[in-house]
Amino acid sequence: MNGAQDLGGMMGFGPVEPEPEDVRFHAPWEKRALAVTLAAGAMGEWNIDASRHARETLPPADYLSSSYYEIWIKGLEKLLLARGLVTAEELAAGRALAPGDPGQRVLKAADVPTVLARGTQYDRPAEAPARFAVGERVRTKVMHPTGHTRLPRYARGKVGIIARVNGVFVFPDTHAHGKGECPQWLYTVAFSGAELWGADGDATLTVSIDAWESYLEGAAA
Amino acid sequence: MHEHSHGHHHDDRDHDHEGSELSPMALRVRALESILVEKGYVDPAALDVLIDTYETKIGPRNGARVVAKAWVDEEYRALLRTDATAAIHSLGFTGRQGEHMVAVENTAEEHNLVVCTLCSCYPWPVLGLPPVWYKSAPYRSRAVIDPRGVLADFGITLPAATRIRVWDSTAETRYLVIPMRPAGTEGWDEEALARLVTRDSMIGTGLARTPEEGRA
């Protein structure tokens, strides 16, 4: 969706503010926000694409005026509400008003290192050959889906070159909406600065995105 | 400190002593945590382990070891090029947000910069949690259209002829920049070299420290 998360190429946000690498958090609540988000995710009630979609469907003004941990918490509340795991009344009261489902999968402290070290694999076996090869010219589709997508607006309808063939990966556009993994070949596609930004582009710039096969069509040389 | 419109937060917004004067967001997070713990959906001990892991165990020193090894071990560097996931796993850095790794090497001709314009994708096992600027609108909006301007914000000016290669992390592939090895480090061991490798140099918003900067 064309939400506020799709920031590439926007202007006016001001300078980037670097900070030392030993700064991990900016307030104690950020630590809790991180941990609660990861622990709740480990219940297995939603996947990474659904959580991204919950964040990007925040109203644009809210998204842009929230820090990233605020975005995480607002997205998490939406996910929990949508799945009936907490109620709006509970969020308003700040406490549980009914017991939880005792059958719910819960991340235990002892399992945290194993779960983090395992991660989640998103690659899948190939069931068909890749349509495109390294060096081939492709054009990204012009598309404006109302649901989740990982094709940023700045890279739609642009001609690029296949730089890597990454394998077959879970397709976020369906996975985010409970419509299955629908794995597709994933490519790294490189665009020149001029292709993306015209005469305003840096002549020395190349930008790549990772694009699923259905985002792409062949482009004649 | 004043508040920034792009969502930076400062410690003065969150007074966490004795439960008094909590910011609205701190209260909101505390409420959510309480609800999930009371319902049995979240183990409070697991929260403490998660925080400790990313506060003290997993951070950019991991990535610095990968880079230092790549600088001294040609065979390892070759493996990083062909299968970065395996190369990084061989040092014990695995898992969440680093399942599918790609290493990109800076040269005198080409400088690499990593961004996630759509959210905050970042290689956690090697770099830890993303810094706040990496997740912020100024960085995510400008990295793909004005990377030299972003580099200038970090005090970096590259030669005009150096090509800039920006990697927008739009899938589950995670990118690690291998910065150029600083001059004057011939014969250094991996441990000494790793101390020159900064987090920002592995994102592409910085360069590895020179031996002189490393002594400072």
UniProtKB/TrEMBL annotation, chain A:
Enzyme class, UniProt record, top EC level: lyase
Cited Pfam families: NHase_beta_C, NHase_beta_N
Gene3D superfamilies xrefs: 2.30.30.50, Nitrile hydratase, beta subunit
EC numbers for this chain: 4.2.1.84
Catalytically driven reaction(s): an aliphatic primary amide = an aliphatic nitrile + H2O
Nitrile hydratase beta subunit domain segment(s): 122-217
Superkingdom, natural source: Bacteria
Domain Nitrile hydratase beta subunit-like N-terminal stretches: 1-107
Family: Belongs to the nitrile hydratase subunit beta family.
InterPro entries: CN_hydtase_beta-like_N (IPR049054), CN_hydtase_beta_C (IPR042262), CN_hydtase_beta_dom_C (IPR024690), Elect_transpt_acc-like_dom_sf (IPR008990), Nitrile_hydratase_bsu (IPR003168)
Main function: NHase catalyzes the hydration of various nitrile compounds to the corresponding amides.
Protein name: Nitrile hydratase subunit beta
GO molecular function, a single term: nitrile hydratase activity
Annotated keywords: Lyase
Record keyword Iron present: no
Record bears the keyword Lyase: yes
TrEMBL record, chain B:
Record InterPro entries: CN_Hdrase_a/SCN_Hdrase_g_sf (IPR036648), CN_Hdrtase_a/SCN_Hdrlase_g (IPR004232), CN_Hdrtase_asu/SCN_Hdrlase_gsu (IPR023900), Nitrile_hydratase_asu (IPR018141)
Top-level taxon of origin: Bacteria
Stretches for region Disordered: 1-21
Top-tier EC class: lyase
Basic and acidic residues bias spans: 1-20
Domain Nitrile hydratase alpha/Thiocyanate hydrolase gamma: 25-205
Catalytic activity, reaction form: an aliphatic primary amide = an aliphatic nitrile + H2O
UniProtKB keywords: Lyase, Metal-binding
EC number(s) recorded for this UniProt protein: 4.2.1.84
Family recorded in the similarity comment: Belongs to the nitrile hydratase subunit alpha family.
Protein name: nitrile hydratase
